[in-house]
Amino acid sequence: MYDRYNRKLNYLRISVTDRCNLRCVYCMPESGIKLMRHEDILSFEEIVAIVTEGANKNISKVRLTGGEPLVRKGLVNLVRMIATIKGITDLSLSTNGILLPQYANALKAAGLNRVNISLDTLSAVRYKKITRVGDIRQVFDGILAAKKAKLNPIKINCVVFKSSKEPDAQEVNAFCKKNDLQIRFIHQMNLQTGEFSVVEGGEGGDCKNCNRLRLTANGNIKPCLFNEMTFNVKKTGVDRAFYLAVMNKPKKGTKNKSGKFFSIGG
Fold first, then answer.
1. CA–CA separation, 241 and 235 (whole Å)
2. I want to staple 80 with a disulfide (CB 3.0 to 4.6 A). Which of 33, 110, 152, 226 is the partner?
3. Phi, psi at residue 142, to the nearest 5°?
4. pLDDT tens sequence across 109-155
5. 3-class state of residue 235 by DSSP
6. Is the pTM of this model over 0.85?
7. Longest dimension (CA), the chain
8. How confident is the model at residue 31 (pLDDT cuts 50, 70, 90)?
């Protein structure tokens, strides 16, 4: 699929849930959120049908996100289903890592290729402050589990608040070099004001080369994270939703005053 600006769209990011076991300050209010109704959330069969249609349109890369995707019951089964779809050659997962000790081996066996794990600091105190409820030891256990399961390459997503030269970011960088992990510095974004930049060490935020569409847990295909346009597969049909998202993908991101990271997947 090519959009109006001749960008090849071959990457679908799928938010499988808006639920999360953390409350990170840059993502979710401390009091929590109004959750989507269970009946509005796509079933695994519906997700597979959407990915299959996407694969027919040359989607080859899929990433599962949240919320925290591993809190979605039975996610290993969804991975297994997507991994069998002809044309999907890269299947990955973004996670906070806490549940990886429980699921890493099963995810690998089901066909998951690799993971991105969030880690913004090496300080247990700072981690607790950022996540409000998290125990950093569980993340380290998750990274080790991913390594043992060979979910490679393991990429660390490190959110920076001003610069990748911040002490926390540099400590995470040193940790990654020591442990054969790839690091991606993600500058803190703001959907409402349109603040975003190109990910250091990654491709996100590079509008002129953007190759992605997003699918929310309740069936909205979004052409751009920093835009309010959305096309619901249940209302328009899957083929039409893909078409409208591709044809309406903006040249560059602007603002998204109604969107939230926890429901779009970042």
1. 9
2. 110
3. -65, -40
4. 999 999 999 999 999 999 999 999 999 999 999 999 999 999 999 99
5. helix
6. yes
7. 49
8. confident
